[in-house]
Amino acid sequence: MGLSSMRRWIRKLLAVVTYELFWNVRKKKFLGMLVIAVALTTLALAGGHIRSAITGEPVESNPDFLIESNLGMGGFGFFLFAIVTVMNTISAEFESGTIVPLLTKPISRSTVFLGKLFAAFLTLLATYSLLLIYLTIGGVVVYGPQNNIHLVLLSLLGALFSIMIWVSIVLLFGTLSRSSLIAALGALGVWVATNIIGSILAGLAGQGWILTYIPGSGTTGSVGEPPVAAVSTGTDSIGPNLIKYILHPSWEVTYYRLNIGGTPPLVALYSEPLSTVILKSIAVASVYFTIFIAISWFIFKHTQVKE
Length: 307
Hints:
Layout: H1 3-26, H2 29-45, H3 47-55, H4 65-68, H5 74-86, H6 91-96, H7 99-103, H8 109-143, H9 152-177, H10 180-205, E1 220-223, E2 229-232, H11 238-247, E3 252-258, E4 266-273, H12 274-302
Antiparallel strand pairs: 1-2, 1-3, 3-4
């Protein structure tokens, strides 16, 4: 591809990105995401005061609130944002009939698909950046001066990494079905299976390692000697785990199985370095994202459009 051809392609890509971003603004999608983000983050910030109102205990300072909060939302927040962002990115074009004039323009389907995906990423980046600023200010006001505040940007990086796997899942369902409702419900089914049913089976059967290789919260282990913190191994916890590793690079993660009715109540299964946990979660997120996006792109590229 020559330089002039590359420039023309970039202009076409930016045209699709602009179209998608303006569509998000017209549909108030970005505003809705920001409202949800602020609501969830405010709830996280108010958690100490809510407990204080119930128990009567004073709100204590927490200098590690920011680095432990996972942007104040965690896995469910990532899943919810993925649905809001891309549940109708592809499917709504078919539902409203706008797919016909869109694909009749001198732009390839691959460029349209990539432009829509990049616009979703920019929307999430803008939302999470504003959320991080709000959370940082709120965390200092509510819980006092914060330790290692320079590491909070890793929460943003990890959040984007974590949410993109859910974006790819929602996008896959939307491309397959051409229905925004099915895109949301299908992704919800995956989230329930991986985060709720899978966690129960893992805890009882001691096969939590399986959850490390599927999207979601993963399994939970303990770190430190004696155990001082819990670590979730899944793709939803990449940000907090990166921060833990920078602060404690020698930590080992130990996994346990519930020993119902027995003594001790928890049985240690095995241990692995925290660095291994992080590398596996990043690799799993990358592989799933690549596969699901590739399938969605292939389906979109070969879909027959009837006027």
